[in-house]
Amino acid sequence: MKLGVLKLLLPLVLLSSAALSAAQQPGAAVAVVPGSLQDIVRKPLVLRGTLGDDKIQLSLRPKVDEDGLEGQYFIFGQGSQILLAGEVDQNDLMMEESHNGKDVSGQWEGSFKNGVLSGTWSTLDGSVTKPFSLKAGVQ
């Protein structure tokens, strides 16, 4: 993996480690709600829907040997794949994207409800935002 991507993902790894340490304390429990997004993304998942006015397909899978998700998405009619990495907490999703594998180009924040993952995509500086709405394998 390229050094730039590792540098960008380090804060996510540190947050995951802190959460895991807290969860391993006596009396602490980590619960996964059945049917939650966290439960669903334990296996590779393909979602289709919209990002602003664009139709997209987004693929997610668990990271190998570490917590979190990775994947990519593309806009129908365009050839490039945009890389994704992030975390899920029950039904809440936070991801960063990268066009070049080095620099963060956008952020995804959303929630899963009634079979729909929806939320807001934004540029890194927040100057541009777009709504997204995705469902597993439809549209």
- The topology string of helices and strands comes to HHEEEEEEEE
Distance between the termini: 33 Å
Strand proportion: 35-45%
Strands in their spatial order, largest beta sheet:
1-2-3-4-5-6-7-8
Q: Please tell me what the overall shape is.
A: globular
Please state the second-level CATH architecture.
Beta Barrel
- Summed up, the domain count is 1
Backbone CA Rg: 15 Å
Describe this structure in words.
- Helices cover 18% and strands 45% of the residues.
- Strand 3 and strand 4 form a beta hairpin.
- It has one domain (3-136): Quinohemoprotein amine dehydrogenase alpha subunit, domain 2 (Lipocalin).
- It is α+β, with helices and mostly antiparallel strands.
- The chain has an eight-stranded antiparallel β-barrel.
- The radius of gyration is 15 Å and the shape is globular.
- The chain has helices spanning 3-23, 37-40; strands at residues 45-51, 54-62, 69-75, 82-89, 92-98, 106-113, 116-123, 129-136.
Short recap of the structure:
With 139 residues, the protein is an alpha+beta fold. Helices cover 18% and strands 45% of the residues. The protein is built from 2 helices and 8 strands.
